[in-house]
Input
Amino acid sequence: MNAALATAISNAATQVGATAASLTAASRAYSLYEGFVFACVVEALARLGAQFEVRDHDDNSATTLVFRTKPGLIFTPGVPYTFVYAQLPSGAEYELHSTLRSEGRSKVLHELDVALVERAEAVRCRQAGISPRAAKVKLLAECKFYGRSLPLHLGREYLGLSSEFRIRVKTIVSNVRSDHIGRMIASQRGTENFDVSPMTPGKVVRFVEWVAKELEQVL
Output
């Protein structure tokens, strides 16, 4: 599956104007899966008419889409990562980040595997050396890549994260499914997207359509 995940990431890199991506088929599977979900969000934004540009940690234009492979701060100087700048037809501006630390409602920092942040907030945070506030995050996706089934504790962890970010567009995404976690999340009016991988193209289409529809309500 690594090769298929890497291909999806490479296609997304081309879509946002990059000449290459840092994640390849040789990268760790969990990092590739996060990159794959990132690519799905890029496609959802494209369906909303977004224009893209890859930018680096200093907010300069970049040609390689460099993913973080461990949680990072938006303002960390000298750390080679990039984000995708997205501008919608309305003129609204956002930044799409991977494995970003963001401040929850309790003021504690949390790792967001994939996050869409208001551009003005991201710029402010880089300038001030602080982390994005929960209210300025427009989308979060918790990504879980597992061999067979998801441990139940992952559902509890997601619900804890969800309580810290009271936003509309948030979900746990995985290449496998768990009926137990699905019921747990549904009981709290949460959203899961299970069985999403290049091996299940129909589920990928459904996921991208869901993201686009939900983002259309908040952007």
